[in-house]
TrEMBL record:
Gene3D superfamilies xrefs: P-loop containing nucleotide triphosphate hydrolases
Coiled coil region boundaries: none
Pfam family, one: ABC_tran
Domain of life: Bacteria
Calcium is among the record's keywords: no
Protein name: ATP-binding cassette domain-containing protein
Organism, as annotated: Streptomyces salyersiae
Domain ABC transporter residues, every copy: 6-251
Amino acid sequence: MDSDFIELDGVEKVFDVRRRTGFLRRERREVRAVDGISFRVPRGEMVGYIGPNGAGKSTTIKMLTGILTPSGGRLRVAGIDPSRERTKLAHRIGVVFGQRTTLWWDLPLRDSYRLMHRMYRIPDRRFRENLDRCVELLDLAELLDVPVRQLSLGQRMRGDIAAALLHDPEVLYLDEPTIGLDVISKAKVRGFLRDLNAERSTTVLLTTHDLTDIEQLCDRVMVIDHGRLVYDGALAGLHEVGESERTLVVDLEREMPPIELASDLAVRVVRVEGPRQWLAFPASASAAPLVARLAAEHPLVDLSVREPDIEAVIAKMYAADPSRQAV
Ligand SMILES: Nc1ncnc2c1ncn2[C@@H]1O[C@H](COP(=O)(O)OP(=O)(O)O)[C@@H](O)[C@H]1O
Ligand SMILES: [Mg+2]
């Protein structure tokens, strides 16, 4: 049971889209948003669910929460069929949609939380403990009395994450929780999720466009494209399949000719702009030896590592194996 906390077997979601094509004329079209997806997530796992825009990620999450009913296949969360027993399931799951808030727009955060306390009938002590913990770890103390509409995107997102956790859900679905966030907010959110998973064994399914989220949080990543699962495994494996590259952005003390490093590091300069240089290296390789060598041989001021973008990884995955079928 615990090894199959989330179960999907051939799950499908077909939308019937009607489009006006002229006066009194309409065209019907089927959109197979999710096209036969099967996977298992054991309790306590933190899984990335990635793919290009329109791949079917949000639709999957909506089915997992019971907001949408699958058109086919079988789906269970904690043994519950989400769309049939949505209310029962609601007490056991938390969900955060990056593009939409579950908070009351005109109310201060504190009042939204009070409403949730009632709605979910959270025992008083539990509520206070959870709220205190979220306020501390998500840095919300100064924000509790501010109406939600006055919060920045990053602040609101932290407020939304707290809201999703006040009732101690066993599983947390996050749909693009870091979209549009600044670097500091992203780091805060990631750190919080890591702790939550480690301390409470909360199962986390994370949809994201940012491979850095996955790298820092998830041991396992599933890639969805056109409604189908095209990869399920470790992030490093995905990089190998896609032969993707990461980029080291290096700031030198001054403008210099393109850096040359020993060929065993499989690195090449792809761009130079004044004192800044971009070095591409295989994403499955560690950046550590490269950074060590750079630091020893060049006057470094700063550096950062950039993950490849998801579209590029998926495109290369197909290029590497054109016969690639859904897993
Ligand atoms: N309510 C809807 N009605 C019709 N089509 C939809 C609806 N929701 C999503 N879709 C379509 O289903 C596909 C998958 O969408 P979505 O799950 O939102 O993708 P993602 O979250 O991966 O960007 C897209 O082609 C989208 O246009
Ligand atoms: Mg989406």
